[in-house]
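ENCODED BACKBONE
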Amino acid sequence: MKGGSSLKNTTFERSSINNIRVHVLPTKQFKTFAISVYIGSPLTEETVTPIALTPHVLRRGTKAYPETKAFREKLDDLYGAGFGFDIFKRGDYQIVQFRMDIIEDRYVNESGKSLLAQAIGFLGGAITEPALEDNHFIEKYVEAEKLTVSRKIEAVINDKIRYAEERCMQEMCKNEPYRLFQLGTIEALQSLSAASLHEKYRAWLQEAPIDIYVVGNTTLAEVSEYVANAIQLKRESAATYNLRSTYHEVKQVRTVIEKLDIKQGKLNMGLRTNATYADELYSALLMYNGVLGGYPHSKLFINVREKASLAYYASSRLDGHKGILAIRSGIEMENYEKASEIIQQQLEAMRQGDITELELSQTQAMIANQLREINDSAFEMISFDYNSVLSGVERSVIELIDAIEKVDRPQITKVAQKVQLDTLYFLRDQKGD
């Protein structure tokens, strides 16, 4: 049986309120409402750090609940509603996602105002009506959260696996916005004041694309009414994303060797796939990454780690909106040449179409199962649909599963022949050459 045949097609209904896009999936599948607000901005040196700091400050209090204690107590009053945020990159954009989940009214003895209306009101207040003093952010909140973000950046520096990944991307994309880390820099944090941050925050809300998602037992009309009441922003235009694929020819592979006080080498490679989520070849691109290094049965894991015993870990990761594939591995210092050679042998095997039926079928099964699991989580359904907003190409879970199951060896080979190794980055100890 084909993987998509047992799934129900889920279709979001959409509208626009004050140049804010609203997406609603009416369903009785869940006992809670899932709410996500995505606010995206092009990655720039000037804005990446203040935007990263902003949600940390917004969670400290609102105009209605200016004290952090009262802010959190209100969530408890809403039957323990969950509230949080993430900051990440998609292509050359920095995305802030606010999340909230709240129980559906029919499961509690609630009378009066809808819990969904209260949740959207609370979230809207948290984003657009923060606690202020002297017409800017509260200074003690800003200073405390600058320290929070600094520690998060330092944690990445101290985690040498993540550090090597970030450094590889910085070197590979040194002339592109993608080089910027989504949390910004400690140096830029230090220069931000409560007043300057508030000024940048106001510009951010005016200029960035904003998408509000709700999944649960509701309607588009109901959610649109709640959003209109909760968010009073006067936005002049509806900003959109521009994540179109561009061909990037690699003229010469760059090799970067960095030395730190470490005991295990980190060998990372950055590759240009010259294909993105918006392309027809996207399903084959997913399969390429899966066969190469996405799973325990993949070529990198089997050939580099298991057979050759050259790596503690070896895998690949795809940013489908940027069209970049990152390979990472942990090796002994003296195995740099051998590991580099055998990893590149796997890339050549992919270009030659050296893919077994077992690799093909196992990868199709793994990706299809992951896609099926999306429909078990309201937030995963939201995240998947948001890909269509970013890319401008609508693609359902069922359609993608069907496409994955139809991918054959020639299609993966076609993708493989477009993939180009761009940067080889090796993080090693201070001793060797």
